[in-house]
Model the fold of this input.
Amino acid sequence: MIKKLPVAWACLVLLSSIKAQAQSTNSTTRPLVVSPIVGEVIDLEEKKIYGLFQYYSADDFREARFVQFTNADSTSSTVLQTTLRNGEVKTRPFSEAEFEGVRRMIETRDLELKRYSRTMQNATAGDSIGSTYSVELLSGNSFIGVLVARRDKELEFSTKDLGRVTIQKDNIKRLQQLSAVQASRGWEVLGNGTRIFFAPTARPLRKGEGYVQDIDIFFLGANYGITDNISAGVLIPVLPGVGLNVFAFTPKVGFQVREKLHVGGGLLYLRAFGEGGGIGYGVATYGSADNNITIGAGYGFASGDISQSPVVVLGGATRISRRISLLDETYIFNGGVAGLLGLRVAAARLSGSLGILYATGAGGIYPAYVEVAYRFGKTR
Done:
């Protein structure tokens, strides 16, 4: 009996080996290309450029690739295989959502790099060295400096407050050359052009960016960027319950579809004196944060009814000096026209706006909009 044990053990090992080979045969693998921009193998340079796989240090990373395993029952799984500099291979499972997230990150960054490349092509070596630029980084920080050196992968600026600053080209989101007048007076970034007076544009607040405002003394408002494309805002009376029982909620989405074109939509829901209603709208904006035009349309609703004809808004802003921008928003509805025309005086974070009301049948123009606003979080 004892002598038969080695034979039984050998048979068990043989059966296990056969089973493992069968399972291996029934499982197939194939490489996955997350984006044709990087190809099948993602190297260290691509990891740095596109900000990928932050859980692996650039000092340890050599290359990575995605592999899909398909079993005999047609189920599949995706794995990231990473080769480190010491030769060690690490695997990390990826869900479908995570895989698509990597694809979007690569494609978004690639678009940013192409926009930057077009900007740099417009500046020749002869006229850019010694010129003053407003520089916005992907991190959200910005500064003004004189370009003193250009190299293959970096630019060097001389700044008033930071001294000499060397910036990797891959980290630059926007590079705006300033005129002599702009440079002499200073040309701060005053916002992302997310609204005119009260009317929204299609340009979104970024994640972590927001503002609070006081309108006509009696109302307080606030808006905040939840993501780079989604924001939400509220409007309440300064003294709730004292004759002005008003509450407004203003969610908005906005997306960049071209270098200077944004589209978006949102909702203005207003509850006042026990009644509720609002307007759902779509909007498109062309231009930059400082100079832009907006067109949009929306349908009002209240008590379960929706308006039969839309309200159309036409508006825009143009920055005429370091601090001052001219604004206009015009509403067209049921054959009538009304709007606000005025200006905004702004610093990097604090601004004030004044608008006069005009309307068909009003018999004149009237001061109607006074606002003070403070921007917080990230600034553009």
Observations:
- The first strand starts at residue 28 and ends at 32.
- The CA atoms of residues 61 and 84 lie 5 Å apart.
